[in-house]
From TrEMBL:
UniProt KW keywords: Aminotransferase, Biotin biosynthesis, Cytoplasm, Pyridoxal phosphate, S-adenosyl-L-methionine, Transferase
Record-given protein name: Adenosylmethionine-8-amino-7-oxononanoate aminotransferase
InterPro entries: Aminotrans_3, Aminotrans_3_PPA_site, BioA, PyrdxlP-dep_Trfase, PyrdxlP-dep_Trfase_major, PyrdxlP-dep_Trfase_small
Pathway per the UniProt entry: Cofactor biosynthesis; biotin biosynthesis; 7,8-diaminononanoate from 8-amino-7-oxononanoate (SAM route): step 1/1
Annotated site residue numbers, Participates in the substrate recognition with KAPA and in a stacking interaction with the adenine ring of SAM: 21
Domain of life: Bacteria
Subcellular location: Cytoplasm
Complex formation: Homodimer.
Organism for this UniProt entry: Terrabacter carboxydivorans
Residue numbers binding pyridoxal 5'-phosphate: 119-120, 266, 329-330
Species classification: Bacteria, Bacillati, Actinomycetota, Actinomycetes, Micrococcales
Residue list for modification N6-(pyridoxal phosphate)lysine: 295
Location, primary (coarse class): cytoplasm
Amino acid sequence: MPDTLGSPLAARDRGLVWHPYAPLDGPAPYAVEDASGVRLTLTSPDGTRYEVVDAMASWWCAVHGYGHPALDAAAHEQLDRFSHVMFGGLTHEPAVRLAERLTAMAPGPMAHVFFADSGSVSVEVALKLSLQYQAARGRPKRQRFLTVRGGYHGDTFAAMSVCDPVDGMHSAFPGALARQVFAPRPPAARLALTVTGEEVWETDRSALEAWSLEVQALAATHSDELAAVVVEPVLQGAGGMHVYHPDCLRVLRDVADEHGLLLVVDEIATGFGRTGRLFASEWADVVPDVMCVGKALTGGYLSLAAVLTTREVGGTITRSTFRALLHGPTFMANPLACAVANASVELVESSWKEQVPRVGRLLAEHLETAAALPHVTEVRTIGAVGVVQLTSPVDVPRVTRAAVERGLWVRPFRDLVYTMPPYVCTDDDVRLIAEGIVGAVAQVHG
């Protein structure tokens, strides 16, 4: 091992460690020296030290901030008992308690839980489960999935296959990904507040009706080969931070029911309050058959996800030839992760209804000034999500640097500079985030 311990961390990292969607010889990363509350202490590649508010909540999962006493205590308590045991043939209290809590808080009659390692793996499990379900119902030829353009469901192979076929990673793996059935992206919508504070959804109703007819026609054409509908409810995340009307989700529920398909909702990014409902499906009063959750599940402490199903789905799998759901990760239901998740979910339940609307109101108020900038095409918010969309791709290194110099950490992508901050941000933190985004965009893009 080379003796590099005295060198700057960014220099040691570059060329050694791959980072998400970045080449080995890409721009040197910022080094994190400390994380506390909603703040990160960073050292830039040139050695400058910054304290910034994490406007990303570490890719949307650290909703309670860093070093939260309740999460720390849960981790320490479980460490003092045992950090991991296999889940095959064994069980433990943190997993059972978490499953009880998740089924109780989920929309509709969710009755069964499968614990997975990550969000992507939970989607893999949901897709595999859907195929097993259809085979158990005597329809083994139903091997494909209906989804919508603009979606993102993870980076593993089956999950990639239901991501957007143009803007996703399909072209990098020709012939390796299953060919799914893609409907158009749902028409854009906007969640507005009336003068009395009432939430009102706005969209082009004629576009929504045309989209609905096209989805129904696609489902009818491919009905005999489809196993499930897979969708991110109301907000498409990494596919473009695209907001769509809850009526679109109702259409997909109706299509699934008409053709004997499961409705699989990917709430990995949208669950636990992020969009202004505990689960985004609730905007449409839709009950899914299968639901994937992750990210905020452990408050960003450890990797954990879960797949929830209705009693009917679980019963069908149990009565099938194999009887089991054919998946079993080594770290399934890791006790340490489940213990922290219990604490995280308890915090969400006790505080999101106050935190998320407050953060959302401040983001809407202070990001709106970006709409006047010449290279901004739209500003939109939903729950604790704020998005500034440009007319051209973001100059990511320059906007990132400009934001850091204003005291916040962002990670733009495509033509979007956005924030999904921790729920525990103070009013001043949220104002700093919003004003910093506006200022960074203005400085770099005019």
